[in-house]
Amino acid sequence: MSERKSFGFETRAIHAGAAPDPATGARQTPIYQTTSFVFEDVDDAASLFNLQKVGFIYSRLTNPTVAVLEERLANLEGGAGATATASGHAAQLLALFPLMAPGDGVVASQKLYGGSINQIGTSFPRAFGWQPTFVDTDNPDNVRAAITEKTKAVFVESLANPGGVVTDIEAIARIADEAGIPLIVDNTLATPYLINPIQWGATLVVHSTTKFLSGNGTAVGGVVIDSGTFDWSKSGKYPALSEPDAGYHGLRFHETFGHLAFTIHGHAVGLRDLGPSQAPQNAFLTLNGIETLPLRMQRHVENARKVAEFLEDHPAVGWVSYAGLPSSKYHALAKKYLPKGAGAVLTFGVKGGYEAGVKLVESVELFSHLANIGDSRSLIIHPSSTTHRQLSAEGQATAGAGPDVIRLSIGLESVEDIIADLDQALTKTLG
Amino acid sequence: MSGTTGDHGHYSDAFLRGVLDRVKSIAIVGASADPVKASYFVTKYLRDAGYRVIPINPKMAGQSILGLPVHGSLADLPEPPDMVDIFRNSTAAGGVTDEAIAAGAKVVWMQLGVVNDEAAARAEAAGLTVVMNRCPKMEIQRLYGEIGRIGVNSGVLVTKKQPLKKSFKKLI
Description:
The structure holds two protein chains of two kinds.
Chain A lengths: L8 H7 L26 H8 L14 H14 L3 E5 L2 H9 L8 E5 L4 H15 L2 E5 L5 H6 L4 E7 L1 E2 L4 E2 L2 H11 L3 E4 L4 H4 L9 E5 L13 E5 L12 H4 L10 H5 L3 H14 L5 H12 L1 H20 L4 E5 L9 H7 L7 E6 L2 H11 L4 E2 L9 E3 L11 H6 L6 E5 L5 H16 L1
Parallel strand pairs in A: 2-3, 2-4, 4-7, 7-8, 12-13
Antiparallel strand pairs in A: 1-9, 5-6, 8-9, 10-11, 11-14, 13-14
Helix pairs in contact in A: 1-3, 3-12, 15-17
Chain B lengths: L12 H10 L2 E5 L8 H11 L3 E5 L7 E2 L2 E2 L13 E4 L3 H14 L3 E4 L6 H9 L3 E3 L4 H8 L29
Helix pairs in contact in B: 1-5, 3-4
């Protein structure tokens, strides 16, 4: 293909990483459903095992189908490289794994997705000794105040789940940069179509590809994308990347691979030792989804905006949190960071609290009551009775998941049908 | 060889392909026998890709790396190399560039992290092509669909079937 300095997002969403299959000429990316790959000879095997050349050994490390997804997402996020994982949670594990040692800290937003609060707040410290500090990132100074000598990373969501919260990535990236530590941004809800956090200073981007990227609720997966811009050797804080690795005969990843160090380490050490690789079938399904990501996201955000406007005027609704609404306190940040739309996940408060919330999710007919977001179908959940029920009442409130909170993920159905379903179910809560 | 870009911040893919296609012999200044050093990786990779690779290392003159005879300096070479790949720091790259010009090389290539604008200007004034702050191994892997195997963003979009060949030199 003739070279241009940069192709458009829609072009890259279809073509990046996906050359015709070199073995067969297959135009769609084949599913390489194989655990292992033969070596040409002993020297070829040695070169691969020593990382002197890149290729395929074993699908826990690399796989041709998964590699297409990795390059596609690295390209769409403007990163140097990517490591695909079995789920979004595995991506968060892989992102922190090379940075942290027992006793090290991570400063994270207190408004993270509830599952991430569990993972970073409970399991990581218990199992690995990675100490979390959760702060209100609406005031970026809280991040600065929480950073200590032991802090190795800052973790936020570009668009938070479930609250309709937009993070001031540029301000927080500057604080992380001043402290000499990387900023990790979960970009699941926004997708690379709405924002590229790397452009605003993020070092690493993580996704649950299960959501809008795959788009049809078919495949669980995740990815870590590295910007390639962080100097892992400068401070001595990141020995996994800067110091000799005993498993590779004393190789120093950053010295040897430069801006590709994090991505190569992610496969050669992260996936090798932790093991959460993505299945080729899931990578294939997610690639198919990404081909239409720009078109779908345009409709997702258009429908979500119309639903948010409808809810704001409904007598059974106490409040609506959607950063695309002028009433949102995050509206200015949304205009800066998400000019194409504030995502398709929103929360609102149903009048009548917990009981009304239960009534609502049991009364909808078109919406599906389930614990996912980013599907072509419209989804509804009552976080305090489901995803956030493990949290205390105080923890639920802090996470924006109080008893009256309903979370919607607006799908691609006719928006009139989506609104009509909400209207009839909301009316029942008034009954 | 023609084709200097004048813009060392951005080399077009076509320019880099042109350089990597036309050169046949590459002298690697700072080649190492240590199998975990980047210069060893690159020496091995370029040899396997089909280039005639000449390691240059004054401490190892007369010995061999990967079976390739090591020379002490560019001035010791019996014939000029097409390209000199510089694994030295940016300051030292200035002197090596002058030696490359004197040795009759056509291309001076400074490794990732190595930039010396004055030396580049001298080489270009002498008619050489200059690439700085890049790794030829990474560029070959990127331009010929290899680097994506480990999730790296090549920035290259391809819609034509690429022939299956063992070495990249046979691809082009």
